[in-house]
Amino acid sequence: MKRIFEYIIPENAPDSPIPCTLRKFLQSKGFSRHILVRMKPYPDSILLNHQHTFLNQMVQPGDVVTITLRDTESSEKILPVNLPLQILYEDLDILVLDKPANMPIHPSQGNYDNTLANAVAYYYQQQNETFVYRCINRLDRDTTGALVLAKNALSAALLSHMMQKRQIHRTYLALAEGILPERGTIDAPIGRVCDSTIERQVDHLHGERAVTHYQRLKICGDYSLVQLKLETGRTHQIRVHMKHIGHPLPGDFLYNPNYQHFQRQPLHSWKLEFFHPITGAALTFTAPLPEDMRHQSLIDSFYF
């Protein structure tokens, strides 16, 4: 897969006063040292006024910089497999997907051909495109909903930085046991359970800070439909926090294996809000609530 960027050097740039070196200008646009090094083998990857140049070249107002990013080989060890793939949005830089339940994000031991990565690899194989798998916000195997993939190294670097700065806003929907208060904030550190590589717990001594804001949207019999916003992004954060306050998610094999109504935890990544990494446009994506979270008329009158 190839992506071409063109920049016209402005009279002045806040992050990189002009004139400056081409390297400094590109770094101000998000090109890391790693990305720049990977472009070196290709003479046409960095052009100044349509001519091959070097990163220490000084740039002046009005100069035209053309950058070509290439992925010459697809991600190793990801087998293309024809699996369901629900695309919410796609452009030259990002791919936004609606992940189904019972689908891991990437291959691991025992999961080599049933993952979202396999489905994406197949999708681009059918277009004769190489594709490096760069998943930005990860979801648990049984958590459904919206997530974003970067289609090139620059969008990946910028989106990853946005995640670290908490500039990608994630809103989840969940069905929790019992009747929650109308709203609240859970501020409880999360750490790994001793002798477990997967399970997490609230750990006030060794855990990392974790904050979840929730709002009860509807009472559904013995359950509450809850909207949750993450201030931090710890592993299993919502599942652990909801158990901590006495309102676990049903059908959760790790934290509450109650399968009376649900065969997986009813947790859904409903909305993503962020600025496009390249254009800066404000973006909002929503994924419809999956059928199993609507079943038994629990929330038949609540629509998203």
Describe what you observe in this structure.
With 304 residues, the protein is an alpha+beta fold. Among the domains are: 2-70, Structural Genomics Hypothetical 15.5 Kd Protein In mrcA-pckA Intergenic Region, Chain A (Roll), CATH 3.10.290; 170-269, 2-Layer Sandwich (Pseudouridine synthase). The chain contains 5 helices and 17 strands. Strands 7, 8, 9, 10, 11, 14, 15, 16 and 17 form a 9-stranded mixed sheet that branches. A 4-stranded antiparallel sheet has the order 1-6-3-4, with no helix packed on it. Strand 14 (211-220) and strand 15 form a beta hairpin. The protein is elongated.
Topology:
Layout: E1 2-8, E2 20-21, H1 22-28, H2 33-39, E3 46-48, E4 51-52, E5 58-59, E6 64-70, E7 86-90, E8 94-99, H3 116-125, E9 144-150, H4 153-164, E10 169-177, E11 183-187, E12 190-192, E13 200-202, E14 211-220, E15 223-230, H5 237-244, E16 267-275, E17 282-286
Parallel strand pairs: 9-16
Antiparallel strand pairs: 1-6, 2-5, 3-4, 3-6, 7-8, 8-9, 10-15, 10-16, 11-14, 12-13, 14-15, 16-17
Principal-axis shape equals elongated
Instruction: Report low-confidence residues grouped into runs of 5 or more.
Output: none
How much of the sequence lies in strands comes to 25-35%
Mean pLDDT: 93
CATH architecture of the domain at 170-269: 2-Layer Sandwich
CATH class division of the domain at 170-269: Alpha Beta
CATH-level-4 superfamily name of the domain at 170-269: Pseudouridine synthase
Tell me the total number of β-strands.
Answer: 17
- Approximately how much helix is present in the residues? 10-25%
CATH fold-level label of the domain at 170-269: Pseudouridine synthase
Q: What does the largest sheet look like? A: 9 strands, mixed
- From the N-terminal CA to the C-terminal CA, the straight-line distance is 35 Å
User: What is the element string, with H for helices and E for strands?
Assistant: EEHHEEEEEEHEHEEEEEEHEE
> Could you tell me the radius of gyration in angstroms?
22 Å
Number of helices: 5
Structural class of the helices, strands and pairings? alpha+beta
